[in-house]
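Have a close read of this protein, sequence plus structure tokens, and explain what the tokens say about the fold. Thanks in advance:
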Amino acid sequence: MSKSQSLLRKSHFLGTKIRNLRKRNHLTMEDLSARCMRVDPESAPSISYLSMIERGKRVPSAAMMAVIAAVFQKEVDWFLDDVPEVQAITPEKGRRGGISGMALEPSFLFSQDILQIAIPEMLSQTGITGRQFAHLLIRAHQEHHQNHFPDLERAAEEIGMKRMPLAVEDLMDIAKGMGLSIKWIDQAPQDVMDEMGVTSMQLITSFFEPPSTIYVNKRLKNVPIRLKYDLAVHIGHCALHNKDGLKSVLTTGRSQISASEELGTPASSTVNAQDILHAWRDFESSFFAGALLCPKVPFRQLLDRHGYEIDVHKRLGISASVAMRRMTVVSPYPHWHYFDAYAPGKLKAVYRGNGIPLPWGNMRQVQDPCQHWAVFRMINEPTQGTSAQISILNVADEPRIYCCESIKVEDLAGNNHVLCAGIDLNPAIEAQGGDASAIASDLKQACVDKGGSVMIPSAIRSDLMSVAKILNINWIERGIENEARLICSRGAACPRQPSCYASGRAECDAVTN
């Protein structure tokens, strides 16, 4: 076999390795092409050819491969399939949110045609609905961009003119100015069963019907915070999508329904482009509503004056959910997470701009959940005063320190649930010149020595308090005054000694209660 043929048969990871090396060395494609030119002008790749190599569309010649290897001071064999080092083939994402990415290699197995066949089959066999898959795609996109959608922000600011707070009357005037009319309907909550087989109450709060009518449940007349949100969502739908024929339905409860579904319609594992488009438009309209009710600059200034207290939502007459979700957007600190949790283990809403693992699922119920996460302790335990908690969690074998504040609320359908906003403190510690890994390791060990939770040692307390004051988040300071807790993403990885799962589920329940 010739050298060129051998290179072709062993090049499935080549493009990913070159791209990751280039990015880790902070080189653009122009930079890499120019450096290759200096090594050997005859064999150096052009920028466009280099792009095709990185995307797996072309395989370089042996001479060109030697030039690229020389630039990075690597042996040519390092770029081939025989050396698939995990770091070399893992997409470079930095500290952006969500779970780690994977290399879509060999690229011919991740072609559009193959994925179009494989994804519906995967959903069917795993029991994931088309709706769930659409929300997973959107969440990954949202976390990858760390909640930055400037076009949606601008659209909301143009309509709301950055006014804050907006009253119900203001939103009705905006709707009227857009040629929309509001009609009231009388509809009671209904029993529905979600994908996990759990029955709960669900209520249709409003829906838009083209060409220009918003139907609103009469129950919202007594709940202005929800009425404002629904109006803002429908205003967003009309502004962003030109009052198209989509029947936009808003509900409250444990489960969500999409614009293309009616309440009580069983979810399908079939996924199609229209469903995903509808789900994306639902997200856009919801994001727009938050930006309309909490315009970025005024809301950031308000949060800064009040130390990011959750109850700032009362000053604006909006829900705690809207305020907490907007915190993750407007804060200059990007490493946030947000959960909306229903019992016994359902995450209705998830945002992980800091990459924190999921504690429980929102597509299936896990068998070994960690009960020490603040958001889930609050579901089952009465909480007095602040719920602020400092937590230590291993992420990719590295201990990280998180702080969160949670509140228990009741939705309009009568279901209790817990909202949680939190941040990853490691980047903030490192920004102040601290050794975040060492501090987190010391705090983790102190927790292990005390059976899983401990009052924070004075030296670590001082470091964390300094960070809390710089970030200007009051609930971090309150969390520092409480015990720090060891948590895990799954019981099988429990770091406590003895492990919560050492003798099965009963022992974990005993530890929790």
About this structure: Residues 208 and 234 are 7 Å apart (CA to CA).
